[in-house]
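thought: user wants a sequence for this fold. calling inverse folding tool.
action: design(structure=
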C-alpha cells in the first residue's frame, strides 16, 4: 500500500503521429477513472493494479503544445487505459510529451506508435529516415530511458546467495567469538574444551560449505569448482 500522502504514478507509454498523440496508461482492472483532458494537459486518477500493486494512482501532465480535447477520446481496457489525443494546428513532431524538460521515471516511449513525418510523403523517404533517427535519439535523451528503468527487484539467485553467505558469516562469527572468549577464560584448557563448545555449529557450517562446490556447477557463480573442492 502507498504511504500516507504518497503520490503514485502509473507507467505511461506514449507515441505520436503528426496529427495526434497516443498514450497508454499501464493500469489493470480500472473502473470509473477520473479523467480531465484540457487543451494544456491531462489529469488522471483511478484505482487499479499497477507497479505498486492495487493502489490509487494519479497523473498530471502538461503537454508540450495544445491539443483538441473535443476530437480526442480514450478507452478503458482490461489491461490499460488507451488515449487518442488530437493535436491542434498544423501537425508537427513534438520533441517530448511534456512542456517542462523533466525526466519522469514513469514516462516511456511506445516505439510501436512513434512516427516522425507524414507517411504519405514517399518522395522524401531517404530524408525522412534520417529525421526519424535524429528524433528517436532526441526522445531517448529527453526521457533518459536508460536511467528511468523499472525498480530493481532482486532475483531468486541473488536472494539465495545473499542468505547463504549471511548464514556462513553469522555461523563462523559465532564460532570465532566463542573460541576467543573460551581462550581468554581457560587459557591452556581452551584447547581441549574448544571443540566441545563449537563442535556442532562448526559441523553445520562446514557441511553447508559443500554448496560452495555446487554453486559453480549450477551456474550460480562464475568461479570454478576446483578451488572450493580443495578448500572444503
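)
observation: tool returned 232 residues.
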Amino acid at each position: 500500500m502507498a504511504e500516507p500522502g504518497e503520490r503514485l504514478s502509473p507507467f505511461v507509454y506514449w507515441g505520436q503521429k503528426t496529427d495526434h498523440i497516443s498514450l497508454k496508461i499501464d493500469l489493470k482492472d480500472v473502473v470509473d477513472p477520473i479523467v480531465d483532458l484540457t487543451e494544456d494537459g491531462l489529469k488522471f486518477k483511478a484505482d487499479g493494479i499497477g507497479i505498486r500493486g492495487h493502489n490509487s494512482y494519479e497523473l498530471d501532465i502538461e503537454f508540450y503544445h495544445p491539443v483538441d480535447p473535443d476530437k480526442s477520446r480514450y478507452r478503458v481496457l482490461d489491461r490499460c487505459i488507451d488515449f487518442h489525443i488530437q493535436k491542434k494546428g498544423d501537425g508537427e513532431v513534438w520533441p517530448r510529451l511534456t512542456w517542462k524538460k523533466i525526466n519522469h521515471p514513469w514516462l516511456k516511449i511506445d516505439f510501436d506508435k512513434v512516427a516522425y513525418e507524414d507517411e504519405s510523403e514517399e518522395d522524401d523517404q531517404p530524408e525522412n529516415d534520417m529525421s526519424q533517427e535524429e528524433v528517436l535519439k532526441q526522445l531517448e535523451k529527453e526521457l533518459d530511458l536508460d536511467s528511468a528503468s523499472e525498480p530493481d527487484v532482486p532475483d531468486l539467485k541473488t536472494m539465495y546467495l545473499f542468505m547463504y553467505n549471511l548464514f556462513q558469516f553469522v555461523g563462523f562469527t559465532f564460532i570465532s567469538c566463542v573460541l576467543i572468549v573460551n581462550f581468554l577464560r581457560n587459557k591452556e584448557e581452551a584447547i581441549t574444551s574448544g571443540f566441545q563448545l563449537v563442535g556442532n555449529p562448526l559441523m553445520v557450517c562446514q557441511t553447508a560449505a559443500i554448496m560452495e562446490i555446487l554453486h559453480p556447477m549450477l551456474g550460480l557463480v562464475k568461479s570454478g569448482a576446483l578451488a572450493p573442492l580443495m578448500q572444503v
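thought: summarizing for user.
answer: Here is the designed sequence. The radius of gyration is 30 Å.
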